[in-house]
Amino acid sequence: MKPSNTSPRAADAPKTDFPESFPRSHKVALEIEHGGHTLSIPKRRIHLTSGESLDVYDSSGPQGRDPRQGLAPLREPWLQARKGQENVTQLHYARRGVVTEEMAYVAAREGVDPEFVRSEIARGRAILPANVRHPELEPMIIGRNFLVKINANIGNSVVRSSIDEEVEKLRWAVLWGADTAMDLSTGEDIHETREWVLRNSPVPIGTVPIYQCLEKVGGKIEDLDFDVFLETIEEQCEQGVDYFTIHAGVLLRYVPLTAKRVTGIVSRGGSIMAKWCLAHHKENFLYTNFERLCEVMKRYDVSFSLGDGLRPGCIADANDAAQFGELETLGELTDIAWKHDVQVMIEGPGHVPMHLIKENMDKQLETCREAPFYTLGPLTTDIAPGYDHITSAIGAAMIGWYGTAMLCYVTPKEHLGLPDRDDVKQGVIAYKIAAHAADLAKGHAGAQAWDDALSKARFEFRWEDQFNLSLDPITAREYHDETLPADGAKTAHFCSMCGPQFCSMKITEDVRAYAEEVGVEGEEALEEGMREKSAEFRAQGGEIYSKSKA
Amino acid sequence: MKPSNTSPRAADAPKTDFPESFPRSHKVALEIEHGGHTLSIPKRRIHLTSGESLDVYDSSGPQGRDPRQGLAPLREPWLQARKGQENVTQLHYARRGVVTEEMAYVAAREGVDPEFVRSEIARGRAILPANVRHPELEPMIIGRNFLVKINANIGNSVVRSSIDEEVEKLRWAVLWGADTAMDLSTGEDIHETREWVLRNSPVPIGTVPIYQCLEKVGGKIEDLDFDVFLETIEEQCEQGVDYFTIHAGVLLRYVPLTAKRVTGIVSRGGSIMAKWCLAHHKENFLYTNFERLCEVMKRYDVSFSLGDGLRPGCIADANDAAQFGELETLGELTDIAWKHDVQVMIEGPGHVPMHLIKENMDKQLETCREAPFYTLGPLTTDIAPGYDHITSAIGAAMIGWYGTAMLCYVTPKEHLGLPDRDDVKQGVIAYKIAAHAADLAKGHAGAQAWDDALSKARFEFRWEDQFNLSLDPITAREYHDETLPADGAKTAHFCSMCGPQFCSMKITEDVRAYAEEVGVEGEEALEEGMREKSAEFRAQGGEIYSKSKA
Q1: What angle do CA B42, B48, B52 make, to 5 degrees?
Q2: A199 membership: H or E segment, kind and range
Q3: In what order do the strands lie in the sheet with B37-47?
Q4: How far is it, in rounded angstroms, from Cα B199 to Cα B221?
Q5: Residue A528 — pLDDT band, cuts 50, 70, 90?
Q6: Contact yes or no for B497 and A417 at CB 8 A
Q7: Would strands A180-183 and A205-207 be described as parallel, antiparallel, or unpaired?
Q8: Is A396 helix (H, G, I), strand (E, B) or coil?
Q9: Largest interatomic CA distance in chain A
Q10: Main-chain dihedrals φ then ψ at residue B411, nearest 5 degrees
């Protein structure tokens, strides 16, 4: 399971920048007992200057490990008991009433009842992607009754980037909050890159197996067949991949429906399968052999991420017959996967104007019987290449609110180039914003507590706390320091936008003290209080601002 | 009207970076005749390598002018005929059936009928902010049946920044697409800064007059009174300010409603008026003297931007009794302003979770009888200081779609510091995205044409066109060049994300050609075609990718 020693290209020294990235945060482990095992659930505790603290969901995994050693196989003891089983999926256990260690783990992680986790998985409304060959995984759950998750894509391509860069990109992505990662490598070393990624990944790893298949047949799409696909997924199952994007819904009859589109087929996997169908005038071999995929995947508990190969690639193509035709087929395939107790989520678009987003969510829930939706954005306009993390964060937040369980990030480089380290961070932060905004809109109490803590810190001029409660404390602090660099400014009772004389927060302190005295009821009491307060206020010298701090 | 010669602090040399910022774009003037005048309406024409071009709305104004000279007073001839009139508002003329030069100008700018512009203004559903003392203005319209507009805030504060920086910031903001600008200066030189800004502004300028009033009374809120306010707005009317934010809806009885809020009152103007009310135990003097404001403003045609002094400053405080109480009063004031034929828009929040955004829009339309809504964001979460251009672009796009006519930008420095040049650009671009996404969702044909042009360029591998059609061509090109710097790559039939072998766009070309041949109808024809195509495809050597370009 360890990466081979022949390619020690990963970074020489173990890296962590957790302490610098999240000042006054530290990782805490919530320990619970389940099935004779002690499960240790990670949280990030943010210590405030008020003496309070806030625990937030933490996806960053063990930091500072040597990539050549990989992460500790924390699930190994749990998996012992399942050895030799024919079907080891979480769905299989959930339907039989079993709360696995993984389910107990995510229940504690999400702050919900383990039985609720089990029931959501059992009805297919949530998935817990966790290949039994990926023991390093810190279990997480994807479903719309849990926190909205985000995925970051990594992966080299023929054009550039190397294995150590990919492992480091993964570490960096989870540091900022990625809940899963897809390894979209298409170049050489595809197997070895994946091995390094998996052995160092605390989050589920997804792949698009057809990419490796295409490498195996020398890039000739028409030479693809089900055998090479089967061999490839066996190989990847063995390595520990947690979910596969499989474009089994690109049917022959849907392909002509893309003919009048502005941008045709924009999914790589989708276009490959469409081309194969054309070359052979045959139905998609992933569709015709779908049950055989289930047979393999249930032995490892690899989840389906049913690919939307016909997703729209521009605003003009959104919600068309090709897209919704494929979605119907994905619903049909969901039923087949569930028959085998294989977990399923459904991939979604893409490029969709705001007024058509909800239709996507509603149709998906109905057609795929509430299997979790996993969307790429959607981008809400095409005219801002260079800023597609923003065009898509808008759509992602909305569809997350409407019910999408996981949002695939988009970086500023989308449509233009390969994301570098900073692009990955920008994409992850934009998507943490979208996911969190969705959690708030869905009424998640834990999400609201985070906003309240930050806003309270803001109102009370606890600048350090405001920075440290931010998704990106260092950037928040840097922006503040550009205008008011002095250390004193971090305890100042005003901010640099308004200066000391125009600080609304400061003025409000007086207003509040007064209003609490008078209460918000009777108009009479109010008038009376006003008179009193006015006199008192003037007696104190009529000073509006506390001058001591400015 | 010219800035005084005693403070020639503006940049020495006229600046423009229009040509570098928008390669292969140039300004064109659409000339129309109206009332004996030739009106010259600006557009930006983007020349494509396909030989086509796309004209887009252009707010950038005359570039390359010497700030010491100011812009040409293009409206002066139009204004001659209105001299000596008691009421010169666009609303006044519109209600009397007159299509002014300004209305004809915006009609051509928006591509609609002049009579439609007049009728929208007449019913108060749109405003055309255009002080008769601001002849340099290129007229624009704010209303939900027109393109969604964005505002950029500029303005020095006591903490830092100078006059020439503000003029340059204005030029920079309109270059990237700001439709109006608010000068929020609060420090010294407030009058002179504004003079320079106005004389160099092709867009409407808004102010918050209470800031200058507070300077005049030495920062003592309790010393404010209506006389100083009246004197101040007379001064600003004379200078040419186009709209005033006036917090006349912060009534005494609403103030205690903010007592239990997490962040109290966050509007500067709102907190000043609340404090004044407390100090005097009297009703807001802007409310009690509202008609006197109308008397002054109608002589210049300065529009009201009725301030939401009690807007929520955090997610927890959204849509509360204080906020909606004030909105009721703003509706009442709208009627009074309309009685005087003074144009009105209504300011809105702020910080609002997604699920509460629509309620804001619906209530505003009803309460203020469809007067245009002008919102700050709203921010959809509080936990991302440093990224509030993104947290708020989400809310701005949504509320724009729901019907907000103008979106006040938020920069990455919001809550942290004063925006610099790059922050202004980041804020403007994020808001151009939000506004454009809203236009698309509202079904604006011109907006859709822009997306289609870019997507078509993308599909046809016209990289240069894809860059030049972007909101920010230079950034798009830079991002592309980081991965594939060679000039040849800009004509390559693949992009760097996938490499030549996995290009879905390329594959689609074949799919499309085939599908067009077969048609999308009969299944039989399809099967027949498939057989033919398969044979033909193999006969050609079965090559999937054109190798000539890679």
Answers
A1: 80
A2: helix A190-199
A3: B25-34, B37-47, B53-57
A4: 31
A5: low
A6: yes
A7: parallel
A8: helix
A9: 91
A10: -100, 170
Question: Cα dihedral angle (B371, B376, B379, B380), rounded to 10 degrees?
Answer: 10
The answer to whether A137 and A202 are in contact (CB under 8 A) is: yes
Other CB atoms within 10 Å distance of the CB of residue A522 = 11
Q: Which two tokens stand for residue B172?
A: 């920079």
**SS3 (DSSP) at A439:** helix
Q: pTM for this structure?
A: 0.92
User: Are A271 and B500 within 8 A, CB to CB?
Assistant: no
A197 neighbors A82 (Cβ within 8 angstroms): no
Give the distance from CA B543 to its chain's centroid.
50
Reduced to 3 states, what is the DSSP secondary structure of residue B41? strand
- A20 vs chain B: nearest CA distance in angstroms? 17
- A-B interface: how many C-beta pairs under 8 angstroms? 493
Best of A271, A410, A484, A509 to disrupt the B interface (most B CBs within 10 Å) is A271
- Which two structure tokens, joined as six digits, stand for B196? 């320079």
Are the beta carbons of B315 and A451 separated by less than 8 Å?
A: yes
CA distances from A54 to A26, A46, B389 (A): 11, 5, 25
pLDDT tens digit sequence for A59-73: 999 988 888 899 999
pLDDT digits (tens, 9 = 90+) for B464-484: 999 999 999 999 999 998 877
- What backbone torsions phi and psi does residue A24 show, to the nearest 5 degrees? 60, 20
Please, where are the H alpha helices in A96-162?
A: 101-110, 114-122
Can you tell me the distance from the alpha carbon of A460 to that of A505, in angstroms, rounded to the nearest whole number? 8
Question: Which chain A residues touch B494 with a CB distance below 8 Å?
Answer: none
pLDDT digits (tens, 9 = 90+) for A460-471: 999 999 999 999
Contact residues, chain B, for A508 at CB < 8 Å = 258, 263-266, 271, 274
Question: How do beta strands A344-348 and A303-306 pair?
Answer: parallel
**CA–CA distance, A432 with A409 (Å, rounded to integer):** 9
Contact B266 A504 (CB under 8 A): yes
Specify whether the CB–CB gap between A526 and A514 falls below 8 A.
Answer: no
- Does the N-terminal peptide bond of residue A42 adopt cis geometry, omega within 30 degrees of 0? no
CA angle B447, B141, B28 (to 5 degrees): 60
For residue A544, pLDDT over 80 is answered with no
The token pair at A124 is: 């297919």
CA distances, A442 to each of A216, A377, A448, A514 (Å):
45, 18, 10, 35
Chain A: give the shortest CA distance to residue B342, in Å. 29
Q: A548 pLDDT exceeds 90?
A: no
Evaluate whether A229 touches A286 at the Cβ level (below 8 Å). Answer: yes
- The CB density around residue A38, as the number of other CB atoms within 10 Å, is 10
Q: Which two tokens stand for residue B433?
A: 């995205």
No. of helices (H) and no. of strands (E), chain B: 21, 13
Query: What's the token pair of residue A158?
Result: 């023929």
Quote the tokens at residue A131.
């290949």
- DSSP-based three-state secondary structure for B37: strand
Q: DSSP code of B504?
A: H
Give B316's DSSP letter: G
Taking the C-alpha atoms of residue B188 and residue B215, their distance in angstroms, rounded to an integer, is 8
Please say whether the beta carbons of A371 and A412 come within 8 A: no
By CB neighbour count within 10 A (0-12 exposed, 13-18 middle, 19+ buried), where does B82 fall? middle
Quote the CA–CA distance of B509 and B515 in Å, as a whole number: 10
Residue B33's H or E segment, with its range, is strand B25-34
Q: Encoding tokens for residue B283? A: 């009703």
**Phi/psi zone of residue B345: left (φ > 0), alpha (ψ -120 to 50 degrees), beta?**
beta
B355–A401: do the CB atoms touch at under 8 Å?
A: yes
Best A388, A390, A432, A463 member to test B by mutation, with max B CBs in 10 Å, is A390
Which chain A residue shows the shortest CA-CA distance from B532? A281
ipTM greater than 0.90: yes
